[in-house]
Amino acid sequence: MKIFHGIIEIAGQMGVLSGGLKKKGNIASAYNTFHSYLGYKEHLINTNIRELRKSFNHILNFYDLFHYHYATTIEEEFRDLEKIKKKGKKVIMHHWGNDVRFHNMARVNNPYVYTGDSPSNEEIHRRLSNISKYVSEAIVQDYEVLPYVRKYYKKVHILPLAIDLKKFRPSYPDVMKKRPLILHAPTNPDFKGTAFIEKAIDELRATHLFDYKRIEKMSNDEVVKLYKEADIIVDQIRCGSYGLLSVECMALGKPVITFIRPDLVNKFPANLPIANGNPDNVKEKIKMLLENPDERNRIGIAGRKYVERVHDRNLVIDKLMQIYSKM
Fold first, then answer.
1. Which of 175, 295, 317, 319 is deepest in the core (most CB within 10 A)?
2. Looking at residue 165, what DSSP letter applies?
3. Which residues of the chain are under the pLDDT cut of 70?
4. Residue 148 burial by CB count (10 A; 0-12/13-18/19+): exposed, middle or buried?
5. Peptide bond into 301 cis (omega under 30)
6. Which domains does the chain have, with CATH numbers?
7. Backbone angles phi, psi at 138, to 5 degrees
8. For residue 102, is it left (φ>0), alpha (ψ between -120 and 50) or beta?
9. How much is the pLDDT for 193?
10. What is the pLDDT of residues 139-149, one digit of tens each?
């Protein structure tokens, strides 16, 4: 099968999925028009929208299946979707969160959520309505994103985030370490809840011995190297589910603090090994891990096992190929 991925790279997932699809014998290409300091390159064709539109006729004729991401397509106002359907090609849309997170709906079960990066409710509805005229199936990463798009498509699939585990050798926290290192890497401080996290950090300095690093504006490859040194990772405490940073750090054997909405806890695979922290209790969660080195180690080991059974790229690609085959 010849598979097109595009046009916005979110958390390295287009590249990871394309690489996995190639390993299964497919021709898969990921065209990215969004370039950031995160510096994702593997299995990506980094380009711009003008060049992509110039090549659209070739792309349309060459690929069998179009896997679009983040509520974007190649042509303005999603005009390419009608052309793809007329050609009898398969097409699916992959939503990631901020592209579809209706502001009012997000707050129903989450008093902490930040939706400042999402378009207006009206714009989200307009986009989804136009996309779903031609696209009947969609993919989301978890049940937090699902309700925003469910009514627009005939079928919405849950596909976990994928990582190439060969790149993540675990380095479990040392229970004998006297001065644990806490890391926090906010791509967007408002979304991640950085102000609440650093307030808790500042208060804990008076009573506990530890180091703290805030990581910003570094490539993904660079920050993964720093994660290996950490004893505690504090990720996103406002969204209500976990993202790629949490997955990567669990793969490295690190205990992760992230907010999982209470109504979603049972929607994830059993025994999710995350310290569930929100803006109200993040100080207590950090304190607990600082005071319990054996617990840091236990959660780290459990996190690696969880990623191996849920987020391993090979397993995720098998699920994706099943989705493709039934479209």
1. 317
2. G
3. 36-41
4. buried
5. no
6. 2-162+312-326 (3.40.50.2000), 165-310 (3.40.50.2000)
7. -135, 165
8. beta
9. 97
10. 999 999 999 99
Closest to 166 measured CA to CA, from 38, 26, 257, 42: 42
Instruction: Please name the residue that has the structure tokens 């690489």.
Output: 19
Burial 54-81, CB ≥16 within 10 A → b, else e: eeeeebbeebebbbbbbbbbbeeebebb
Cα-flanking dihedrals φ and ψ of residue 50, to 5°?
-65, -45
How many Å apart are CA 249 and CA 227, to the nearest integer? Answer: 7
Phi/psi of residue 181, each to 5°?
A: -105, 125
Handedness of CA 291, 292, 293, 299 (dihedral sign): negative
Say how far apart CA 282 and CA 259 lie, in whole Å. Answer: 9
| pLDDT at residue 99, rounded to an integer | 97
Separation CA 13–CA 315 (nearest Å)? 14
Q: Tell me how far apart the alpha carbons of residues 148 and 237 are, in angstroms, rounded to a whole number.
A: 20
Helix (H, G, I), strand (E, B) or coil at 29: strand
Q: Between β-strands 44-46 and 27-32, what pairing exists: parallel, antiparallel or unpaired?
A: parallel
Q: Is 254 left (phi over 0), alpha (psi -120 to 50) or beta?
A: beta
Instruction: State both tokens at 8.
Output: 């916005």
Quickly count: other Cβ atoms within 10 Å of residue 46's Cβ. 15
Residue-wise pLDDT for 228-282, tens only, equals 999 999 999 999 999 999 999 999 999 999 999 999 999 999 899 999 999 999 9
The residue type at 284:
E
State the pTM of this model: 0.94
